[in-house]
Give the backbone structure.
Amino acid sequence: MSRFFTVAIQKEENWYVAKCVENGVASQGNTIDDAMDNLREAVVLFYEDTQFPSLPRTFLTTLEVAI
């Protein structure tokens, strides 16, 4: 079974940090692809013993604010 997750990626010094919005699981890598691969593995481990009917859906958008 496959599930889709929302991922935020941020560059921090020499690393790319990828964080799953739905569950807070995070990982890092030297490249975006490495960070995503590492996060994929971490999310699989996070849910390996979990039985759940569905996950909540998260919607992301942008907000413009005059500062």
About this structure: The radius of gyration is 14 Å. The domain at 1-67 is CATH 3.30.160.250 (Double Stranded RNA Binding Domain).
